[in-house]
Amino acid sequence: NFDGRSDQEVKKLFEKWIAAHDKSYNGLTKREKRFWIFKDNLLCIDQHNAEP
């Protein structure tokens, strides 16, 4: 679980983001690194949006 979001939901959001921004990552390591960056950014966004 990722701050109220399931791992599956975060993965789907990442895949949508990749498609929307026409990104492609060669190799699993690069894609995995970008996924962790995406997750960190998403957490920051969710925390910011939760502030009054």
From TrEMBL:
Domain of life from the UniProt record: Eukaryota
Pfam families: Inhibitor_I29 (PF08246)
Domain Cathepsin propeptide inhibitor: 14-49
TM regions (residue ranges): none
Listed name of the protein: Cathepsin propeptide inhibitor domain-containing protein
